[in-house]
């Protein structure tokens, strides 16, 4: 029984195509822009069974399977700025893969002391170096590493009187005007905090949700972010020039539970992965609902946008749906 779409919304489209073959729930997706297979980009998926699949969007088949997580769920995938390397995060291990010329080999790894589901984040620091944020050893800690040397930069631990619980999602970024890295972290108590990594201090913390923050994304050009949680609302917040976060508004959802939220690279639209099996698409500036993508038959765990605007969604139903919506103008 699917409720009729409101009059303002056209009937939802069908996926452009569907990728099958993970044989396991899909928990992570990432478009690999640097790798062109006959001019077509590739899609990476991470599954509950611990495998990473590399998909050709041309043949719609997996062209390689990476097995480095010993059966532990893969929750985050990120290709590195220099192109031919991949980070994959399992429950207790982060693997660095060399994907050049089909080598597909683990060349390094970082043991994780956390057993949560908090995805890592990276920030390029020049051609060959990058900064990595991952959940830390203490349940409320975040560890910052310099990569690929794996040198510990610092551990970010909340102030003594703050009890935010575990970090649930992380986003490293820096402004064009300042070399100082910042970190946005969503926490178990529903708060979002902005850390100054160099100073190891929280610049600002806001209560966004009454439930753990499951996903967040940040538009550094508009200094505006969005987060989703187990509750029935998206929170939109902004960052002023004094590094203070402010809640801008809540957008009520039809059903509770957001696993992931992503802003498209052109900052026009936003997609959410829902516990209600739906992918919802919103206009980013106004948060007007644009589409409800009802294809999956179980929780949608992750969404990802390609540079050209293609949208992928991964679900507990073992399928990955690929959508072409609102073409980039």
From TrEMBL:
Q: Name one GO cellular component term.
A: nucleus
- Which PROSITE patterns does the record cross-reference, listed alphabetically? WD_REPEATS_2, WD_REPEATS_REGION
GO biological process terms, alphabetically, are: DNA damage checkpoint signaling; social behavior
Write out the transmembrane intervals.
Answer: none
- Where do the WD repeats lie? 206-247, 293-329
Q: Which UniProt keywords apply?
A: Repeat, WD repeat
Q: What is this protein called?
A: G protein subunit beta 1 like
**Protein's organism:** Myotis lucifugus
Gene name linked to the record: GNB1L
């Amino acid at each position: 029984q699917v409720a009729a779409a409101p009059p303002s919304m056209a009937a939802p489209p069908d996926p452009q195509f569907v990728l099958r073959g993970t044989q396991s729930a899909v928990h992570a997706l990432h478009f690999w822009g640097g790798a062109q297979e006959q001019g077509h980009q590739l899609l990476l998926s991470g599954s509950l069974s611990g495998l990473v699949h590399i998909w050709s969007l041309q043949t719609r088949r997996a062209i390689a399977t990476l097995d480095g997580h010993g059966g532990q769920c893969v929750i985050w995938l990120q290709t590195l700025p220099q192109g031919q390397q991949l980070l994959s995060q399992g429950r207790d291990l982060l693997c660095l893969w060399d994907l050049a010329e089909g080598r597909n080999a683990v060349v390094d790894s970082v043991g994780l002391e956390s057993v949560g589901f908090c995805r890592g984040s990276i920030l390029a620091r020049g051609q060959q170096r990058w900064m990595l944020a991952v959940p830390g050893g203490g349940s409320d800690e975040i560890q910052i590493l310099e990569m690929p040397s794996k040198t510990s930069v610092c551990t970010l631990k909340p102030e003594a009187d703050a009890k935010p619980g575990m970090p649930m999602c992380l986003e490293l970024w820096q402004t064009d005007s300042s070399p100082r890295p910042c970190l946005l972290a969503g926490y178990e108590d529903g708060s979002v905090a902005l850390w100054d990594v160099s100073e190891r201090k929280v610049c600002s913390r806001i209560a966004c949700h009454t439930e753990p923050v499951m996903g967040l994304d940040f538009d550094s050009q508009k200094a505006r972010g969005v987060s989703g949680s187990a509750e029935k609302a998206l929170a939109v917040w902004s960052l002023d020039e004094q590094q203070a976060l402010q809640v801008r508004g809540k957008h009520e959802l039809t059903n509770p539970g957001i696993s992931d939220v992503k802003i498209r690279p052109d900052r026009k639209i936003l997609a959410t992965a829902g516990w209600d099996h739906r992918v919802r698409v919103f206009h980013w500036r106004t948060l007007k609902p644009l589409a409800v993508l009802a294809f999956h038959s179980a929780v949608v765990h992750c969404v990802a946008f390609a540079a050209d605007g293609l949208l992928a969604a991964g679900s507990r139903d073992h399928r990955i749906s690929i959508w072409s919506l609102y073409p980039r103008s």
